[in-house]
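This section describes the prediction task in plain terms. A model, or a person checking by hand, is given the sequence of a single protein chain and must write out its three-dimensional structure as a string of tokens. No templates, partner chains or ligands are provided. The sample shown here is typical of the held-out split.
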Amino acid sequence: MSVYTTEIASDKIVSDNPIHQRLLKAYYLAEGYVNGDLLEVGCGEGRGIDLLKKRIASFTALDKIQSIIDVLQDKYPDYKFLQDNIPPFSKLEDNSYNTVVSFQVIEHIKADRQYLEEIYRVLKPGGSALITTPNIKMTLTRNPWHIREYTADQLLTITSQVFDDVEMKGITGNEKVMQYYEMNKKSVRKITRYDILNLQYRLPAPLLRIPYDILNRLNRNKLKSSDNELVNTITHQDYLLTDNANEALDLFCILKKN
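The expected answer:
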């Protein structure tokens, strides 16, 4: 996968700001959970490393994109960055980490049960894992980069089959965030109304990725143009942790190993 798709929101592209802040919120929430030896599965461009590093003893990251791994290893020489196509986590030992974080990853994983089992395997007894993923109930259109998306109940079911304790929460937004969401929903509907043959769900995902990225970028730019102040001023503080996962934008799942 190219690094530079709309699937990876940039902190440098202004029109990406609402999505970047939404993804960043998970790391702010993780501050209260991480400790000791931390593993991040699917680190991307290292969005949360600087935020979490002061709370941990060591940091290891996995990602499938070698170019990202190379850049991050140069930037953070004291940490360990490993390229791997997962699951399994073939380069990691059992019972190695106090905490695992894996944000916006499980929806990309075909073998989702094995992915969860591998997180459990590498956690130390007493350790915790945090995962986030989009709430399919709030998804506006098919994302061809995703293998699947989950409801809160579906994610609770599969995680409970692997972990000893599961707590399901969500990340939602305040009025400012939901105003952006409603603008986005209206704009997306204007685009998808032309899909009279429902091709977004009928065509193979790889065929949809390029048009998806083009239309997604155009849509984000249009939203910025229509309300520049709203897009610019959304911060991570506008995203909120909620116990009502069913209506959240993202599911935020806390997993524990006894």
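For orientation: Residues 170 and 251 are 4 Å apart (CA to CA).
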